[in-house]
Design a protein that fits this description.
The protein is mainly α and 378 residues long. The chain contains twelve helices and four strands. Strands 3-2-1-4 form a four-stranded mixed sheet, with helices on both faces.
Length: 378
C-alpha cells in the first residue's frame, strides 16, 4: 500500500476535488505506447494514400539530378543550385505527411486522459534539482518497470522484424531484377506492410500499458483517511462552523417568523407546549396559512408577541397539536382540519364584533372535530 511523507497509508480513493486539482496540474494518465502506435498506424495510412505520388515525385527529383547538362558540369555553382532545388522540392512533397503527423502527435495523447493544458509543470521547482531524490527516481520501482517494459518492447518488435525480414529476404534480393520504377513501388508497398505488422506488435504493448498507466495514476492519487477528512472540512467546513451556520440560519428564520405573528388572525395554543399562528385572507379562495409555529420556548415567544399586538389567543390543545405536526410553515392547513379551524375563526370574528359593538360575549368550545389520522397525543 502506498504511503505519504508522514508514513500514513493511502487507502482511500481520490475524491473529485483531488482529481480536479491533479488535472489542473497536468497530472493525468498518459500512455506513450498508445501514442506511438497511433502515430505509426496513421503514418502508414498516410504513406498508403500519399506514397504513390511521393515516390513519383522522388523519382523525378532523382532523374533530374542525375541528368546533367554539359554547361552544368563546368559550373561550380550548379551543384549547390541543384541541391537547393532538390531539397525544396523534397520538402514540399513531404509537407502533407508531416502536417498529418504533427496533428496526430498533438491529438493522439488525448486518447487516454483527454485534453489537459497546464503551465504548472513548466514552473521552476528546486525540489526537482535534489540529487538524492533524483537518484531515488532513477533506481525506483517505476524506473525498473519502465526498463523491463522497454526491453520487452524491443524484444517483441525485434522478433517480429526479424521474422518479417527473413520471410521477405528473397523478395528484397529479387527487386534488383525489376525495372526501377516498378522496383521502387514494390519496395514501398512491402515496407509499408512491414511497418503495419510492426505496429500491430506494438498494439499488444499498448494494450498492456494502458491499463497499467490507469492503475498507476489512480494509485498515485489515492489519499489517506486524514487527507479525506481535511478536504471534507475545507469543502464543507468544520463541524463547529457548520453548527454555527445552522444556528444563525435558524435564528434568522425564527426572527422572520416572529415578524409575521402580529399579522396573524389567531394563535391557537396547547396552551403551554405548542402555539400556531394562522392567517386567513378572505379575498383569496385558499385555506388559512400557518405563518408561525413552535413548541416550548418558541411557543411562549409567539404567545407573548401575539398578546402584545392584540392577536387573539385560543386554547385548543388537540387542534394545536394537529396543526403543528401535520403542517409546514407558510403552507395551508390540511383539508381534514378545515372544519375545526373554521370554528376557531368564526369564534375570533365574533369576538372582534363583541369587542367593537358589545352584546353577548361569544364562547368557544375547544372540543373541535379532528380526524383520527391527524390527531397527535402529547
Amino acid at each position: 500500500m502506498a504511503e505519504n511523507d508522514n508514513g500514513q497509508e493511502r487507502s482511500e480513493e481520490a475524491t473529485g476535488k483531488r482529481k480536479q486539482e491533479a488535472r489542473e496540474k497536468g497530472q493525468i494518465a498518459r500512455s506513450k505506447e498508445l501514442t506511438t502506435v497511433i502515430m505509426l498506424l496513421v503514418g502508414c495510412a498516410g504513406f498508403l494514400f500519399l506514397g504513390k505520388g511521393m515516390v513519383t515525385d522522388l523519382e523525378v527529383i532523382l532523374r533530374d539530378n542525375l541528368s546533367l547538362q554539359r554547361d552544368a558540369v563546368f559550373d561550380t555553382a550548379a551543384m549547390m543550385r541543384m541541391f537547393a532545388d532538390s531539397a525544396t522540392a523534397g520538402l514540399e512533397l513531404m509537407i502533407p505527411l508531416l502536417l498529418l503527423l504533427v496533428v496526430v502527435a498533438i491529438f493522439a495523447p488525448m486518447a487516454l486522459g483527454g485534453w489537459s493544458f497546464s503551465g504548472k509543470p513548466l514552473q521552476p521547482d528546486l525540489k526537482k534539482l535534489d540529487p538524492i531524490k533524483g537518484m531515488g527516481r532513477i533506481f525506483s520501482a517505476k524506473s525498473l518497470a519502465e526498463l523491463l517494459k522497454a526491453v520487452a518492447k524491443l524484444g517483441l518488435v525485434g522478433s517480429v522484424g526479424y521474422l518479417l525480414l527473413i520471410n521477405k529476404l528473397d523478395l528484397f534480393l529479387g527487386l534488383g531484377y525489376e525495372e526501377v520504377h516498378e522496383g521502387i513501388a514494390h519496395l514501398g508497398s512491402e515496407l509499408i506492410g512491414m511497418v503495419f505488422f510492426l505496429s500491430a506488435a506494438l498494439i499488444v504493448v499498448a494494450m498492456l500499458d494502458v491499463p497499467f498507466q490507469l492503475w498507476d495514476h489512480a494509485r498515485k492519487q489515492r489519499m489517506t483517511k486524514q487527507e479525506v477528512k481535511d478536504e471534507h472540512k475545507e469543502t464543507e467546513g468544520s463541524p463547529e462552523l457548520r453548527s454555527k451556520i445552522r444556528q444563525t440560519q435558524q435564528e434568522i428564520a425564527q426572527r422572520r417568523m416572529m415578524e409575521e405573528v402580529p399579522k396573524a388572525d389567531v394563535v391557537i395554543t396547547n396552551p403551554t407546549h405548542y402555539a400556531v399562528a394562522l392567517k386567513y385572507d378572505q379575498e383569496k379562495a385558499g385555506a388559512p396559512i400557518v405563518v408561525a409555529m413552535g413548541a416550548d420556548e418558541v411557543a411562549g415567544h409567539i404567545r407573548r408577541i401575539a398578546a402584545a399586538n392584540d392577536v387573539p389567543l385560543v386554547s385548543a390543545p388537540p387542534l394545536a397539536r394537529a396543526i403543528y405536526y401535520n403542517t409546514e410553515l407558510n403552507e395551508e392547513i390540511p383539508a381534514g382540519l378545515y372544519l375545526a379551524v373554521a370554528q376557531v375563526l368564526a369564534y375570533v370574528f365574533q369576538l372582534r364584533d363583541y369587542q367593537l359593538n358589545g352584546g353577548v360575549a361569544p364562547e368557544f368550545n375547544p372540543d373541535v372535530p379532528i380526524p383520527d389520522d391527524l390527531k397527535r397525543d402529547e
